[in-house]
Amino acid sequence: MKNILIAGAWPYANGSLHIGHVAGLLAGDVLARYHRAKGDRVCYVSGSDCHGTPVALRAKREGLTPWEVSDRFHEEFSRCFQWLGFGYDLYSKTSSEEHIRFVQEFHEKLYGSPYVYEKEVPQAYCEGCKSFLADRFVTGKCPVCGEAARGDQCDACGEVLEPEQLIEPVCAVCGERISFRNTRHLYIAISKLEKELKAYVESHENWRKNAVALSKRYIEEGLRDRALTRDLDWGIDVPRKGYEDKKIYIWAENVLGYLSLSRLVAKERGWDFKELWGEEARHYYVHGKDNIPFHTIILPALLLAEGEGWHLPDYIFSSEYLTLEGKKISTSQNYAIWVKDLIGRYEADSLRYYLLANGAEKRDADFSWQGFITSHNNELLGAWGNFVNRTLIFITKYLDGRVPEGILEKGLEEEIDRLYEKIGKKVEGGRLKEAIDDIFAFVRFSNKYFDLGKPWITRNTSLRDCQDTLYNCVQLIVNLAVLLKPFLPFSSEKVLGWFLLDSSWKRKTVPTGFVIPETEILFRRIDRERIGKEEEKLRA
User: What is the pLDDT of residues 296-329, one digit of tens each?
Assistant: First the structure.
């Protein structure tokens, strides 16, 4: 049994979840379900990122408190992830007492390390708002690519920024040109850790290519020291005398949520927290490519500087971007598909399948309503659902509803065993698109096996052949359900429940004579007229 930590990125609690967020995070749930099926000890955590300027900025615009805004979206996120079937061991928020307490403890120790120092620096200040501004409160042009950018990062090229680096910086609230005033802050000397971080990145060629390339680029360009504190009203108090009016910079506390939440899970379940973060543990980090440097450079820098010997990230599953009908998803222009609007209208397994089979693992992927509905009707309904339903209905109608006598064909037995091993390796390696493609290739093979067996003919000409075909089809169904469980949890759980089987990652057998209970259709057809209606909503 392995100790597995799966860390899903924390969505900002300043707006609703859209399908792009889900596409970047879904791999975490697949991993968690797979490793649990393998019998590993899994700690799968994430939460809502409630601090920082994105939340504070929305609160200011709506005339609300940051608490009110972040709590509202945290509740919405929780409902959405539950509908999607995300099996978090703990989904919390950065404003929780447990997280705040852990972060302050961590920073107190960090401040005593040789990598933290004080420095007086210019910080953005808005005369109109009469306040210091941090990261996203400042907008301007990226000094690298020239595109519009925020004071923390450029979405166009991925460059991590400071507000003072922006060209023509203005206040994101009132739009006035900003000035800079000197203020004292704590900094972490990431530059002193360059050798260790370079060796660390170079030893992890198992990361996705975008993570390797971007991390090496940051190092080659020269790592910059980063502020640990900022003049803010919303966030975690700095645990240091003389810094009572400042907050911990969000990037230096949200990534520590993986530690704070896993500590709480370990405590509640009686696990050894040190084992979960020990040398033998395995850690997966799942997020979009815009979060790469925060997980491959900044988090390791914090862990190394603190000096406790924390386990550094092993696997980085960093997805490319998801576009929508060929265009960039834009929350500011309300051009998105919001997860909350899908609840009750579509099946979660349908969305999970389309996002995984169309996964943005190596390049940007596009979501189209035509593609989504077609994949549901052709693959989930037409292939997988059809194979299950035609087999079980036939047995119910012509074989008294009992699994007939038969022997699993040696070739099928070997192929099923190979498939468990092959799919497992691909899931662990982050090749989820390939994995689900392989499973559905076997689904199509299984349908062909049914057709070639012609049970509708052999029930009259050779009952023995008919029974053998259907016995083997039942074994194919239950093993496909196990293989699909990490990807399509709801429909797979339904199938396994009919046969009273668990989802452990090994070949399953349904005994002869097993009485098949009353079943139901796994998937229902989606009317293609919906395509035009959904596309029209996007244009509205």
Answer: 999 999 999 999 999 999 999 999 999 999 999 9
Q: How far apart are CA 305 and CA 109, in angstroms?
A: 10
Tell me whether residue 77 is in a domain: yes
375 and 474 housed in the same domain: yes
Alpha-helical segments (H) within 230-327: 257-269, 273-276, 292-293, 299-306
Report d(CA 437, CA 473) in Å as an integer. 20
CB 529 within 8 A of CB 416: no
| Residue 433 lies in domain | 369-498
Amino acid, single-letter form, for residue 210: N
Q: Are residues 384 and 330 in the same domain?
A: no
- Give a yes or no: residue 348 inside a domain: no
Residues 251-277 pLDDT 10s: 999 999 999 999 999 999 999 999 999
Other C-beta atoms lying within 10 Å of the C-beta of residue 85: 17
Check which CATH number belongs to the domain holding 257 and give it. Answer: 3.40.50.620
**Mean pLDDT, rounded, for 497-519:** 96
374 with 407, same domain: the answer is yes
Chain centroid offset of residue 292 CA:
13
What is the spatial distance between Cα 94 and Cα 235, in angstroms, rounded to a whole number?
9
Helices 432-453 and 386-398: crossing angle, nearest 10°? 30
User: What domain count does the chain have?
Assistant: 3
Structure tokens at 442: 């076997």
Q: What element of type H or E holds 436? A: helix 432-453
Using CA atoms, how far residue 63 sits from 50, 56, 59, 138, 236, in Å, is 17, 10, 6, 19, 21
Six token digits for residue 74: 């945290």
Compute φ and ψ for 259, nearest 5 degrees: -75, -45
Assigned token pair, 143: 């000094």
Q: Are 495 and 522 in contact (CB under 8 A)?
A: yes
Cα dihedral 373, 377, 378, 382, rounded to 10, equals 170
Whole-model pTM: value is 0.92
Closest CA to 418 of 401, 402, 438: 438
CA 176 – CA 170 distance, rounded (Å)? 5
What value does the CA radius of gyration of the chain take, rounded to a whole number of Å? 26
Query: Once rounded to an integer, what is the mean pLDDT over residues 27-36?
Result: 98
Quick check: is 247 in a domain? no
Whether residue 326 is found in the same domain as residue 402: no
Residue 235 forms part of a structural domain:
no
The verdict on 89 and 149 lying in the same domain is: no
Q: Do both 470 and 383 map to the same domain?
A: yes
pLDDT in tens, 380-429: 999 999 999 999 999 999 999 999 999 899 999 999 999 999 999 999 99
For residue 190, the domain's CATH number is 2.170.220.10
Residue ranges in 270-409 assigned as alpha helix (H): 273-276, 292-293, 299-306, 348-357, 369-375, 386-398
* Residue 105, CA distances (Å) to 98, 186, 295, 312, 375 in order: 11, 16, 21, 19, 49
